[in-house]
Amino acid sequence: MRRLRNLKIVATLGPSSNDYPTIRALFEAGADVFRLNMSHGSHEEIAQRHATIRQIEADTGRPIAILADLQGPKLRCGQFANGAAELEDGQIFRFDLDPTPGEAHRVQLPHKEIFDALEPGATLLVNDGKLRLRVKDHGPDFADCEVIVGGTISNRKGVNVPDVVLPLAALSEKDRDDLHFALDLGVDWVALSFVQRPEDVIEAREIVGTRAAILSKIEKPAAVKAFDAILAVSDGIMVARGDLGVELPVQSVPPIQKRLVRSCRAAAKPVIVATQMLESMIESPMPTRAEVSDVASAIYEGADAVMLSAESAAGRYPVEAVTMMDNVAVEVESDPTYRSVIEASRQAERSTVADGIVSAAREIAETTDIKAICCFTESGTTALKTSRERPRVPIVALTPFPATGRRLCLSWGINCYYNEKVERFKMAVVSAARAARSGGYGEGEDKIIVIAGLPFNIPGSTNILRVAPCEERLIFNLEPE
User: Fold this and answer.
1) Where does the record place the Pyruvate kinase C-terminal domain (predicted)?
2) What is the pLDDT of residue 118?
3) What is the pTM of this model?
């Protein structure tokens, strides 16, 4: 089931995509990664979805990545005596720790950490930024705010504090419970919400270890400021544009998205562009032209993956949404302008032998008739470096480890195949040729590039490149090693 595009598609599972036939249809339509949203569904439901994905993986013989997305600490106001209240522009409204039901002039905000961190002039946003308040005075258990933009505030609405780095851990107690559960299931990626600083990722790493890769969600202004440090300790990044657009001026999100995508590519770490990509397809079988342009823009920028949230989890047309993303990606990647943009944004990375090897492989592939670049990888690093080059030919990654193959499903252009461990380079070339033929990348005298490291089975030792034919008989006719 070879994909006809390099972009990867992440589909969130939920009530609309909860059984084998639907999930299988999503996979066949183009989903490469399935997201399990730990904010919704019981552990039992999530375990069932996980088992269904693994069954589809076994039935199709193709690696599938599973991403567990942790909820993160959610800041919400308390409840109101009448269920809601109307706030008028210019009035003073108090948030406090008093659990008494709220009314027109106050409500509980059960997060003492916020009051400890607030400063006069700080902004509080309620209900995805629909209401905006400014702190006038505050103490250890209250904050008196002027209403800048009024409206209806109701029970348990979310509260954002964009101006302040909150002293909150990225992992709540629920997150820790969900994280241990997801790791025991055997997920491939864990997405951390509410990341503000690199220490948040390091804290999660102490629990995760090597059992899964860590994806940091960039959704806070503090995370944007500390992005380079967060990227350095993360395995991948999600540009969560929904919360970014609440806490930052919406016009600042596109340039931030472009900068983050480019930084991730330079670091050879996958990046997902997420939120509201085909939002109208929750109810409509067709997206808006603006949504299609939005998806296309992320592809032109060089993102590794784009993500569907409610479109595939709770929408009426989950399979159609995946199909639409697939169609857009195929169309964009066939546009000559796409190659021009991708190659113009390539940043030279030549700090290691492996960097030089993968760069040489890409240059050879661009100047000769090469059908695929085949790389042997244990940890996935060689494949990721090859993906960073954004070559014009397919990338075939061969690994003996299912965990590595599944994690690579998130990265641009990588097609993963499992192989037995090899000890001799000629047998590695044979294995690469078999994978290229079985995947439909080449046959007979068609040439492939094989990248590996000698001695074998030592991560990070990439140091050899060979151009070889796809036909085994021709390989064995080559001169002895």
Assistant:
1) 356-467
2) 93
3) 0.92
